[in-house]
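Database export, one record per block. Field names are fixed; values are copied verbatim from the stored entry.
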Amino acid sequence: MAGSFRDLTVFKKAFSLAMEVFEITKTFPSEEKYALTDQLRRSSRSVCRAIGEGDRKRQYPKHFSSKMSDADMENSETQISLDFAQACDYLTIEKYNELISKSEEVGRMINHMVEHPEKSKPRNR
């Protein structure tokens, strides 16, 4: 679909990060399956979901900003889970820094959208 949320750079970066999180969490201990692994996967995927939902609300600036704020919140939750994963030695410091850096980039892009909803005009579909 042309003009889709899937074309947004922020969505592509968030999706890529969520897939990287999925792959890396495969190496986490089995006792973390229903705790850290599940939470990290869900929050990273929720960033993408909120971006997609927000894109559909572009014509309503307050709703759009609210959804982008949700995406930012989920991105912060992902970072906190990454903090725990690194503290538990499930991630090397290099991999942790790489994932945090990617998450921070996504966060900056989301925050820009929240702070400047007027630049996010409805597109022809």
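Remark 1: The chain has a mean pLDDT of 91.
Remark 2: Residues 61-87 form the longest helix (27 residues).
End of record.
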